[in-house]
Fold each of these.
Amino acid sequence: MNPADAKTLMFYGENARAYAEREIAQHTRLKAFLALLPAGASILELGCGAGAASAEMIAGGFDARPTDGAPEMAEEASRRLSRPVETLLFHDLKAVEAYDGVWANACLLHVPRPELAHVLGLIWRALKPAGYFYASFKTGAADGRDKLDRYYNYPSPDWLRATYSEAGRWSSLSIDSGEVKGFDNEHAAMLYVVARKSV
């Protein structure tokens, strides 16, 4: 099964410019993540959107590789960053122990539940030993679609922990909660996960 929902990808393709115009950097959480990494660390960004987070990484001297699953969104990020941004679907990630960090803000929440452990496993493989991985999810009890017809896996903290454990060995894994106002203007409860790959 392809862990990319066609309707969700279509939404981001059709709304790339509007999404880019409202995107802001992740401020505190991104800064805290970058503080965990060595100077000049290599970072893979999945679902980079219009490139706000990668712009901060590059400005901070990090070796960032921004990617997005929607070609139109990758094009927006490329314009913003003045550098090529590749289109990459999660299941096409082939890297092995290549990155000190992986940043996946508000993108893995679109992976179908049965495929999430596999995708997390690909990310685990792409991380160097002791590398850090950040991801965020809209929380819930069962998967479904929002009013914009985007698919979400809506995990609980316990389900997420079990799924991460299935994907690989982590020396630490923390889950914080919060709330955001999304593109649909709805407030959503969020889970923020920071995991460190075992040495």
Note: The chain has one domain: 6-197.
Amino acid sequence: MENVLRPLIVLGGSVIVTLALGWIVDLLLRRTDARHHETPLWGRLRACRIPLQLVLVTALLRGSYRQLELGLINDHEAGIGQVLSLVLIGASAWLVIRIGVAIVESSYSRYAAGSRDAARVRRVRTQVTLISRVLTAVVGTIAVAAMLLTFPEMKAVGTSMLASAGIIGVVAGVAAQSTLGNLFAGFQIAFGDMVRIGDTVVVDGEWGTVEEVTLTFLAVRTWDERRITMPVSYFTSKPFENWSRGGAQMTGTVFFHLDHSAPIPLMREKLHEILKGSSAWDGRDWSLALTDTTPSTIQVRAVATAKDADDIWTVRCAIREQMIAWLNEKHAYALPRISTAPAVPLPNHRGHYVDLRKQADGPDPEDVQVRTGRG
């Protein structure tokens, strides 16, 4: 009877204590979150319930599994203890990562809720993302190292590795040069405010929005829903356009090549009318000016402003479409034309102009005599 009750008490007691403690902690967090709505940390910490319970039940079993006094457990005591130790280390790392991410994310949420500067919010979001990834990488590395050190064989390997640490360090440094470069470039992007999540950039002639920033790569979502993945070291070693740097507001231009007779004052009035009817125009500024002229056309530049890159694209397209349609309907003469005129006749040796139409019937006899030396 004791052989049956002892395992039930040990295993059942561990599970009951784990469930009870998990429920108590979740209840306290739920009540604290209800009293302090301004602090999102307590609500986010509730996501740590599962790893917390896993840590508790593994720790209880790790300390009490020898009390089961079962033949199978006695025969494999070292192996069972090893497995429980590995699970405990992994669960503890999971719990630490969940707590750290909850703290970082709650800090960002409070900052984003109280800030009206969208550029600063994107900057903090980029930094928070990279901090979370760094925390996960560091804790994961420490957990794996701790798991390996639980094996007696790995301790001997570790001692021999320390003896040749200099050579291994040089080899690893050369082999991981590109990876380490991207890693430090990721930190430089995050804390140097070069590019942020949500920024509008132009990279290698491609226009898009920064969608994801990691420690090693950066993803740009283009206007046609493609994703361009680039190493972060690209943004620290080559020039690129960041249209959101210093603010999302933008000024766009539209050029028209027209005939010299184009009605510039009327076009200026029409431009203002188009902008007033466009919801994408932010109303800050607009203008229309004749910026250049050639023997056959003139160049007219329309300028408008918008709150971001997406709206400035919409405004520019609307100006082109509506202005060309208006010119074609009301002032067709203003559209560019190719002017033609009769060719000027060439003079002959006596200073008289040659009728080009008569040249089709044959050359002038007098011209022939002059060219041949006769007459």
Note: The CA atoms of residues 81 and 219 lie 44 Å apart.
